[in-house]
Amino acid sequence: MKKNFSNKEIVLGVTGSIAAYKACELASRLVELGAKVTPALTKSATELVGAASFEGITGRRAVTAMFEPLQNPEVEHIAVAQRADLFLIAPATANFIAKAAHGLADDWLSTTLLATKAPVLFAPAMNTNMYEHPATRENILTLKIRGCTFVGPDAGRLACGTVGPGRLIDPMAILEASAPLLRNQPDLKGKRIVMTSGGTQEPVDPVRYIGNRSSGKMGRAIAMEALARGANVTVIAGHSEAPLPYGALVIPVSTASEMAETAVGLAQECDVFIAAAAVADYRVDAPADTKRKKTGKSLTLTLVENPDVLGLVGAVRQGGQVLAGFAAETDDLIKNAKAKLEKKKLDLIVANEVHSPESGFGTDTTNAAILDRSGHVDKLPLLSKDELAERLLDRVVGLLNRS
Question: What is the pTM of this model?
Answer without folding.
Answer: 0.85
